[in-house]
Amino acid sequence: MRDELFQKSCGVVPVRLVDGEPRYLLLHSGLVRNPKATWEFPKGSMEEGESPIQTARRECREETGLCEVRVVEGFFALDTYSFRREGRRIQKQVSYFLGIVDDPSGLKAEPDGREHVLDAEGEWARWLSYEDARTTLYHEGQRAVLACAHAHLVALKILEERAAPAPAPQEAP
Coil, helix or strand for 23? Predict the structure, then answer.
């Protein structure tokens, strides 16, 4: 039995514009043990025969209830990290895509109760400004994905540049 496993997941950085300002969707995880690291983007494991973009769309839809998410062409970011579960080291690679949400009304009113749960304030999903999302995300890799997504929206002139640009997104595999 190997002591290390490799997992590949795909996810979406959901964003909507409110009066021209971006709001990024974060979900409260019920699976993360570190109480500082509980907010994340929707993501999940690939199923047989799925492409990374198909997985990202399916996971976003299943976890959030949002069916109409427009994937932004030209954006791809990769986050890699490791953690331990049941005594095994797991090396995880998450491919992220950027998705614009025009109609957030499809967002589930309640979490599924396993992957996502209510936090102490009774919230499980938050639409946050860039700065609030950046400070809410605990892991540097997820903050880097957010910064790349934000910079991509600025580069496409979907957002006006208000701060120094973030690093460019990575090439798709």
Answer: strand
Rounded CA-CA distance 102/17 in Å is 8
Both tokens of 97, joined, read 């895509």
> Cβ distance 10 to 94 under 8 Å?
yes
Quote the CA–CA distance of 114 and 137 in Å, as a whole number. Answer: 20
Residue 71 tokens read as 């994937």
Model confidence, pTM? 0.86
What stretch of H or E contains 150? helix 140-155
**Dihedral angle computed from the Cα positions of residues 128, 146, 97 and 43, in that order, rounded to the nearest 10 degrees:** -70
The pLDDT tens digits of the residues spanning 8-54 come to 999 999 999 999 899 999 999 987 777 777 999 999 999 999 999 99
Q: What's the token pair of residue 103?
A: 């109609």
